[in-house]
Design a protein that fits this description.
By secondary structure, the protein is an alpha+beta fold. Helix content is 36%, strand content 19%. The longest helix is centred in the first third of the chain and has 15 residues. The mean pLDDT is 87.
């Protein structure tokens, strides 16, 4: 998504993961700059975020060692619900 994403872009990415894999993410991993942008958009504390206490729709949003501007949705795919792709 890059460093300057908007709330609708984040929400589309989150929803896109759910639509593609038919499961909610277990966590959202992002580079520290993306986590800071997330906090600015959703009016969350960066200090709390770096302690791992930020959530989006009850899914943890945490910093990870990733290239700048990177976000990843992590989850387990249920093969029965995955569909025929």
């Amino acid at each position: 998504m890059g460093r300057q994403f908007s709330a609708p872009e984040f929400e589309r990415a989150f929803a896109g993961f759910q639509q593609l894999y038919h499961v909610r993410p277990l966590r959202v991993l992002c580079s520290p700059d993306v986590l800071e942008r997330y906090c600015a958009i959703y009016e969350r504390s960066v200090e709390i975020a770096h302690r791992g206490a930020i959530r989006y729709e009850d899914v943890p949003v945490v910093a990870a060692v990733m290239p700048a501007g990177t976000i990843a949705f992590e989850g387990e795919v249920d093969e029965d619900r995955m569909g025929d792709w």
